[in-house]
Amino acid sequence: MGIAKQLYQLQELDLEIESNEQAVNQIARQLGESQAVVRAQTEFTQAQQHVEELKRQQHSAEWEINDLLDKLTAAEDKLYSGTIKNPKELSSLQHEVDGLKARRNQLEDETLETMDQVELATASVASLGSKFKKLEAEWHNQQQQLSTDMEQLQTKLSDLKHKRQQLSAKIDPSAVEFYHELKKQKGTAVAKIEQGICHGCRISLSTAELQQARSGSLVHCSSCGRILLLV
User: Fold this and answer.
1) Residues 6+ away with beta carbon under 8 Å from 20
2) Which residues, at least 6 apart from 125, have a Cβ–Cβ distance to it below 8 Å?
3) What's the CATH code, domain 31-158?
4) CB 173 within 8 A of CB 185
5) What pLDDT score was predicted for residue 85?
6) Domain with CATH 1.10.287.1490 in the chain
7) Distance in angstroms (rounded) separating the CA atoms of residues 47 and 51
8) 1-29+172-231 — its CATH code?
9) Mean pLDDT, the chain, as a whole number?
10) Is the dihedral of CA 210, 212, 213, 215 positive or negative?
11) Which of 133, 187, 225, 229 has the smallest C-beta neighbourhood within 10 Å, fewest atoms?
């Protein structure tokens, strides 16, 4: 096998290795915490906390209403007991009763409004909880698949690098070094000859270059400097 062919095979292995390494890096970026899942969990937790806060407000208002009812009952019993004769004291007590009733009515309205808010917020929690669980399940499945893909890619990469090492050992070290320099400069070091044209730069080759390539000699494109391979 000619050295140009060997270097082309080395290049093919390098391209495949680079492609697999890019795939590994892409998977590595996808592995780990999902921002979408984190956001869904945060929204779900905040909604739960909001419901709990509304329920605390509702219970607090209910306790205050019960306390007011006790005070109102006591004040009304005293007002209508007939034991108080002083008009000023009766007026003051009536004012207290009216104030307690007004506060009770206000709290009852607020409690009804809070109960409506609790109902809506509870429905929102259920919806956000379903969304979070769905995203979390999808994320877990994705992570499992990515882990499997990563393992397969790493195994393939290991095999490719082993093949590359074996092939590289069969090629003249100076040719391998030159190949690396060209690859660094051009991206690809070896270019096929197709219909008398260098596939690397798309420039027509001279008759002398074509003859050298046919003879099996290591030939470089006079335009781009790449190693030429006649197939």
Assistant:
1) 153, 156, 157, 160
2) 44, 47, 48, 51
3) 1.10.287.1490
4) no
5) 85
6) 1-29+172-231, 31-158
7) 6
8) 1.10.287.1490
9) 94
10) positive
11) 187
Say how many C-beta atoms besides its own lie within 10 A of residue 158's C-beta: 10
DSSP-derived letter for residue 227 is: E
Q: Please, what is the angle between helix 35-79 and helix 87-170, to 10°?
A: 170
Number of C-beta neighbours around residue 13 at 10 A? 18
Q: What is the pLDDT of residues 61-109, one digit of tens each?
A: 999 999 999 999 999 998 888 888 888 998 999 999 999 999 999 999 9
Task: Sort strands 197-198 and 227-230 into parallel, antiparallel or unpaired.
Answer: unpaired
State the Cα–Cα distance between residues 163 and 12, nearest whole angstrom: 11
Percent share of the chain, pLDDT over 90: 88
CA distances from 116 to 103, 109, 127 (A): 20, 11, 17
Question: Distance between CA atoms of 229 and 217, rounded to whole angstroms?
Answer: 10
